[in-house]
Design goal:
Layout (H helix, E strand, L loop, with lengths): L6 E10 L2 E11 L4 E6 L5 H8 L7 E6 L11 E4 L13 H10 L10 H13 L15 H13 L5 E5 L7 H18 L2 E5 L12 E6 L2 E6 H4 L2 H8 L3 E5 L5 E5 L1
Helix pairs in contact: 2-3, 2-4, 3-4
């Protein structure tokens, strides 16, 4: 049986404040890849995520998430917002934060089951954060918090993982570690990953494709089609050059 596309956009447009911010989205995003979402500030990246999550509807057209209407698939989506844990409470431990990924939508008081605790432990182990389990979020570095955020998103065993600027404010070494972790999650768990990013360089060598918002339209292309100097120059508003490092890796720079 052929797997449904991770995302399917059919003549979709989006509005904000009564104004169309992007339109003419007609594409399918295959399941199983690591997909960048890129565009200038105000181009509508957050709006696109909100539509995928079913928080708002498209102005026109139809969106499907693994064949289902947005919102109906949300239990199979792991979401890491920008600035996760930016101001954590002093008493919140990493394992408590990850547990919220399982029971954060429950009403009332109820203890967590043994199987839920085991899933929390497994999620922390999957992101190499077992040693952080009993540490408070307020004690963690930015990179450590990002690992905990990923564990919280993964504990529900998602099919789609959405990350909003996961590398922002991280140093280069930590960025590299998080990107390697995303690549491993994608390969070992088969999770489709959607990454909103401003700087593509840390991600270029693990991406399979990109959704890009340009000139008021939403586009999709594979990495080979997207990593084009003319297109990137237009997208970033400055002349860009695509080069290969001595190790054969892609890198973008201003020319």
């Amino acid at each position: 049986m052929t797997q449904a596309p991770a995302l399917s956009f059919s003549d979709v447009s989006a509005t904000r404040g009564g104004q169309t911010i992007w339109s003419q989205a007609n594409f399918d995003v295959p399941a199983g890849g690591i997909v960048a979402v890129i565009g200038s500030n105000g181009a509508g990246k957050t709006t696109l995520l909100q539509i995928v999550l079913g928080l708002i509807g498209p102005a026109t057209g139809q969106v499907r998430v693994f064949g289902e209407l947005p919102g109906e698939f949300n239990q199979r989506i792991g979401y890491v917002p920008q600035n996760f844990g930016a101001a954590p409470g002093e008493a919140v431990r990493s394992r408590d934060a990850v547990m919220l990924g399982l029971n954060g939508n429950r009403w009332g008081l109820r203890g967590s089951s043994r199987s839920e605790h085991e899933r929390v432990d497994d999620a922390l182990a999957a992101v190499d954060a077992t040693a952080l389990a009993d540490k408070r979020l307020s004690q963690l570095s930015g990179g450590q918090r990002q690992r905990v955020a990923l564990a919280e998103a993964l504990v529900g065993q998602p099919t789609l993982l959405i990350l909003d600027e996961p590398l922002a404010s991280l140093d280069l070494r930590t960025q590299s570690e998080i990107v390697a972790l995303l690549q491993r999650i994608n390969a070992e768990l088969g999770v489709t990953i959607l990454v909103v990013a401003h700087d593509l360089n840390p991600l270029l060598n693990v991406l399979t494709s990109a959704i890009y918002l340009l000139d008021g339209h939403a586009h999709f292309d594979t990495l080979d089609g997207f990593v084009n100097e003319e297109l990137l120059s237009h997208l970033y508003g400055t002349r860009m050059e695509v080069v290969h490092t001595p190790q054969g890796e892609l890198y973008m720079r201003r020319s």
